[in-house]
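FW: tagging you since you asked about this chain on Friday. Here's the raw sequence from the shared folder, copied in full. Didn't touch anything.
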Amino acid sequence: MRWCRFSAGGETSFGLIQNDTVIKVDGAPWGQHTVTGQIVPLANVKLEIPVIPSTFFCVGVNYRDHVERMAKMRGTKPSYPPRPDIGYRANTAPRHRVSRQ
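HL: got it, structure written out here
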């Protein structure tokens, strides 16, 4: 059996994949959990990313192409940082979108 995170019937849960079925689990793999009797065909579920971290490590300004494109959009000369900008980001932080022209 393998652990998974899946959506079915408008609900997202953890589960155990066994052959061509998913057995729903109440709780999480790393904590207390109970295997339920609810079994769903694997073909009827959407497999989700394994976990959604509350914060995550990220690296910014680490692609030369990105620096050049953003400078062009601003009408300025590219300025390359001496090293990547490293930090943490909360999962609830707003996402910035840049329109591409």
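FW: The radius of gyration is 21 Å.
HL: agreed, and Helices lie at 64-74.
FW: great, closing this out.
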